[in-house]
């Protein structure tokens, strides 16, 4: 068990430090994200494109302006657990390479961080929409003799609002 915890810590640390390999302006991104039990949430805007015959994932994220103090600083964990899929295949695991932008209604035109994947770009991929998945997770726990407070993140669609 001790080794599993150390390994999971190293994996999370590695995901948290991802830097984008390229930047590009978003054209027509898919919007996803979720909300916290305590209020507020995040939106992820992502799209796929071809780069040198490979599939590249580009995206940005935003958080709502009205967040509970209980969720301050949880974004690296939440984004680090997310993935982008195309045709049921995970293209990237960990979305920490995506830069934060202010919440807005339309993310087209935003400068996004991009990661090149191992997937070869196929004919018709440009017409496909990626799927962003962020697992449900506990982001805050506080318990004492008086009771407990537990805050969950739940993927429920764009959660940052429009600014």
Structural topology:
Elements: H1 2-16, E1 22-25, E2 30-36, E3 41-51, E4 54-63, H2 75-80, E5 83-86, E6 89-93, E7 111-120, E8 131-133, E9 137-144, E10 147-155
Antiparallel strand pairs: 1-7, 2-3, 2-10, 3-4, 4-7, 5-6, 5-8, 9-10
List the keywords.
single chain, 163 residues, mainly beta, three-stranded antiparallel sheet, elongated, Lipoprotein
Could you explain the architecture of this structure?
This protein has 163 residues and is mainly beta. The chain has one domain (2-155). It has 2 helices and 10 strands. The protein has helices at residues 2-16, 75-80, and strands at residues 22-25, 30-36, 41-51, 54-63, 83-86, 89-93, 111-120, 131-133, 137-144, 147-155. Strands 1-7-4-3-2-10-9 form a 7-stranded antiparallel β-sheet. The protein has a 3-stranded antiparallel β-sheet with strand order 6-5-8, with no helix packed on it. The longest helix is centred in the first third of the chain and has 15 residues, at 2-16. The protein starts with a helix and ends in an 8-residue tail after the last strand.
């Amino acid at each position: 068990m001790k080794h599993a915890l150390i390994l999971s810590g190293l994996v999370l640390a590695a995901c948290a430090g991802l830097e984008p390999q390229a930047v590009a302006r978003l054209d027509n991104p898919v919007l996803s994200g979720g909300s916290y039990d305590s209020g507020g949430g995040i939106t992820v805007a992502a799209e796929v494109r071809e780069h040198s015959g490979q599939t590249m994932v580009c995206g940005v994220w935003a958080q709502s302006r009205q967040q509970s103090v209980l969720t301050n600083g949880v974004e690296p964990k939440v984004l680090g657990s997310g993935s982008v899929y195309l045709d049921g295949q995970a293209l990237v695991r960990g979305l920490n390479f995506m830069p934060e932008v202010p919440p807005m209604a339309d993310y087209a035109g935003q400068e996004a961080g991009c990661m090149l994947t191992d997937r070869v770009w196929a004919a018709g991929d440009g017409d496909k929409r990626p799927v962003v998945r962020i697992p449900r997770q506990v982001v805050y726990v506080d318990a004492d003799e008086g009771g407990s407070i537990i805050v969950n993140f739940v993927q429920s669609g764009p959660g940052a609002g429009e600014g």
